[in-house]
Design brief:
The protein is mainly α and 93 residues long. The protein contains 3 helices and no strands.
């Protein structure tokens, strides 16, 4: 079932690129990257390697795993956003 294993990489690749791009944008604007984004990125990169069961699971399993990671990052970001005033952008210079 090599097609299924590569399918998991494709299903998780899009969300991985999204989180990496969002982290890069956050670093450019605020000068930092949230821990939740880093953890989510690591999980999405390591998940197909450590979970070979995704190679034999239906394609929806990898998509559901990616969705859970994205929802987790979004919930943590929302909780952190409620704690204090909005962040100010990093000064240019």
């Amino acid at each position: 079932m090599p097609e299924s294993g590569s399918r998991a990489w494709y299903d998780l690749g899009g969300p991985t690129v999204f989180i990496a791009g969002r982290a890069w944008l956050e670093h450019g604007i605020f000068g930092r990257v949230s821990r939740a984004r880093l953890v989510g990125l690591i999980v999405l990169i390591v998940l197909p390697v450590l979970a070979p069961v995704l190679a034999f699971a239906p394609p929806l399993a990898a998509t559901a795993a990616a969705a859970l990671v994205l929802v987790g990052v979004a919930l943590i970001d929302a909780a952190q956003g409620r704690r204090g005033p909005p962040e100010r952008p990093m000064p240019q210079g």
